[in-house]
Amino acid sequence: MKKTVKKVLALGLSLIMVLSLAACGSKGSDEPAQTQETQETQEEQAPAEPAAEETEPAAEEEAAGGDLSASITLWTYPIGNWGDSATVESLIASFNAAYPGVTVTVEYLDYTNGDDQVNTAIEGGQAPDIVMEGPERLVANWGARGLMVDLSDLFATEAGGEIYESVEKACKGSDGKYYEYPLCMVAHCMAINQTMFEAADAMQYIDAENHTWTTDDFFKAVQAVYDSGQQNVGAIYCSGQGGDQGTRAIINNLYSSTFTNADHTAYTANTPENIKALEALYAQDGINFDASINGGEEITLFRNGTLAMAFCWNAAQQTNSDNAPAGQTNNGDTILPMLFPSDDGKTELCGGIWGFGIFDNGDQAKIDAAKAFIDFICNDPGQVKESVKASTYFPVRPTLTGIYDGTEIADTMNTFSAYFMPSMGDYYQVVPGWAEARTEWWNMLQRIGTGGDVATEVETFDTNANAAISAAN
Amino acid sequence: MNSGIKRTSVYTIISVVILVILAVLFAFPLYWIVTGAFKTAASINATTPDWFPKEWVMDNFNKLFSRQTAPLWELAVPFGSKFSADGKPIVFSAGPVVPAAIRWLVNTVFMAVMAMILTCITSAMAGYALAKKRFRGQTLLFTLIVCAMALPKQVILIPLLREMSTLSLYNTIWAVIFPTVGWPFGVFLMKQFSEGVPGEMLEAARIDGAGEAKTFIEIVLPMIKPGIGALAIFTFINSWNDYFMQLIMLNSTSKLTISLGIAKLQAENSTDFGLIMAGASLAAIPIIAIFIAFQKYFTQGIAMGAVKG
Amino acid sequence: MAKSSNMTSRSKALVRRETRSAWLFLLPNMIFFVGFVVIPMILCIYTSFFDSTMGKDAQDTFIGFQNYVELWKDPIFVRSLKNTFVIVIVSVPVVCVFSLWVAALIYKMKGPVLSTFRCVFYLPVVTGSVAVTVVWKWMYNNYYGIFNYVGKGLGLIDNNINWLGDERFALWCIILILLTTSVGQPIVLYVSALGNVDVSLVEASEVDGATHLQQFWKIKWPLIMPTTLYILVITTINSFQCFALIQLLTSGGPNHSTDTVMYYIYYSAFKLYRYGYGNAMGVVLAIFIALLSAVQFKLAKEK
Fold it and tell me: Chain A residue closest to B271 (CA)?
């Protein structure tokens, strides 16, 4: 008995020692460099390395980036196929061909928890080096908090000079510094289940060729689809911020109002037009304010035929063929992308502009490597088309044309270029305090959905959101 | 008398029927996860539920395993990244590359076992001291422990995060383990058990000339063994399910736990229920297998814990 | 005189030795307890007096009790505090009563049947809340969830109910899941506690003509009292830890109807970037919980 106890104790003690060793060991591996991507890039490089050593002088001449040596992390939101590891790995492989000394580790974020994940990492002292998203996060949030590196020098390049002015403006913080270098953009639109609309004889309200409709026709069409037995036509989803641009766009466009003022210094949700739109949507049969779903889940419901329209849509959704052929729902119905209905015939679509920002982690070597990465991905003439194609969105420079030529999705992309991109509206998501304001937005929709008075709730939104602006300044 | 018996049996029958219905409800989520993992996409997305897979497919698992990959394990030089040339940790042993989901399972098991072992050792020692020693600060310490026992970890979320960052433990499995070990419930439980050790035995050991360590190991430990068993099970399951600390402290693919991994799968692929179910069954099946295999010990351990506590 | 002073110094030495050895035994645990519970708690109290936010140039400014004052004016906080206590006050007694009922029914059953039931009720605990949530989310779904499907099929409801999207139901839906993931352990505990009740006592009372109810209250209940207290403690702890369900199912919505203080702290920190405010909430919650634990403990001691 005593002997066993001693044995157990000895075992326990040795375990503790091993543990404390392992603890230290593990500490070392915390630096988020050693994930699978690193391994793979290392493997990819492995055969190349001996060769490079043999011909050292030549190698030095060959690549300007050869002397850069750092290990950087890239966190991407699911922007088209930039959320797909196979695609991103191939992009990184081409980067590593030019810059063999830089290892890039990728983490994939989602729109539900991604922000929290980045925020905890910032507080945890392990912010990523590069993050791929839009100005509302890179510029208005992390940039405004002084966490990002100024990217003016990238805009000073030849390619940087070609970027559309409106896009460039969106990438600039209120302090005049650039916190995002853009790669691609899209205009967010909506979509309808054409098969259902046909069955309900509602296509008469739609200008299918130009993808437009008026506010009156929109409500008539919804009513017609509802009357045909489709209980759920559309959902004003508001469980969280995912896809919230769709709910803002439908509300702002119905009676042609705006979300912020022109200088982006104050929120203007509290207009008679917006209130009218909210009240009309709330009263409409078949439109539910659904606090149990977000934009992504709305799309799921639209794809499986539960909903007849989706307010969260864009070119990438239209060309998505994960569960059904592109442009079709899971049960084979036709999906028709549409502009948001508008009473003045001039729809303003919410844009998405995606690109890269660099977190200032205090290590110049990493910042340089990160800039080299961005420069290569967005500016290298041989690479940029592939990078944009991976996003399944549109380039931010007029000189980049014919990206999708010869691909299966060329037709769809041309349709979007022709009918949707020109309606791109004001990019207002760069207001200071944006992160807090958008939280207020879906909270407001939840209150209205549960019977809150529209006028009061919209005013509450404006008050709180404007308070966030002054707090951020 | 007669009618009394009748009433009782009627009551029993109704109760048992309700019990069976409840049991079905309790088992249903697991049933749905496991069958769902083998269903086709069409079957799982059907608007009228398919109660049983018409066709068993491995697609979902194939998809789950063909996603990201990670080395099965990694052992690195302590603080290697601080002095390596490119800021990378110096890994001296990395396992073969496997699907990330497998790595998550390894991480979770490691985390739960470590938390369990550390908690049991430290709590048993501390509980004994609290129960059988008289010392300065005892009342204060015990009050502190009782008050902190039910404290949710969310309360100290921000300071803990900053602390882990300072200790460069953030994004390591240790950042999840250490606060679990520090959580004072174990000490409380062990104190309750140690109260049951007769003082005369300790006195006798002392007269025999046994040192403190010897007394603890040879007399106290064997007597509180059932309590340690109960605590071990409790800690293991709690730490396996402690989603919050994992969510806050871990972020890179190779560091995730299985719970966190599924939550991420769910957020990334709200469309792909099959994939999520595959992940969820991967998370659930090992621990259920452990549970069923050790059911006797589980229930005995838990039950003994309560009798004394 | 000399003798007694000798005694005191000897006992003093003894006390000192005892204290030293006690703290040596406590040391390993104290490293973790102080390091990862007490110190963060002190930091938490400290930061709660500051206006603290994320950002490189962000300076914490001392604002005294302003965060605390604001808390009580914040309807969301008051609501989340209420929700927190609703969860605890509902789930703790329900878990106790339900598990006692189940245990009373099954503890006399034959071995395999007993262990099957015990196992089934324990399943949600071991499955893990995240995995369980995946299924519950689908079951509660507004459009194709099983509750609406079955409810409509049986004619219990006319229209689909948006379980998680409706203020009236959301919190109760969360509590229901919490219950299923909480009763496993109490049932196991009660089964063995009831099994340990001395049969001769029960038989003796039967001879005396006691009814089942009397038997239960007079004999069994006092004997299983320690188990009940233990269950109360672990269930309270469990209910306060309820975070994953809320974060994964409702994110506190709709309209903060499922916000608990625990979730609202997370929300303030990482959605609103208000660290000081979040910490103030933590302090308030900690005070409430400490009081509750103290009361519970005192009651337990008296019994």
Answer: A300
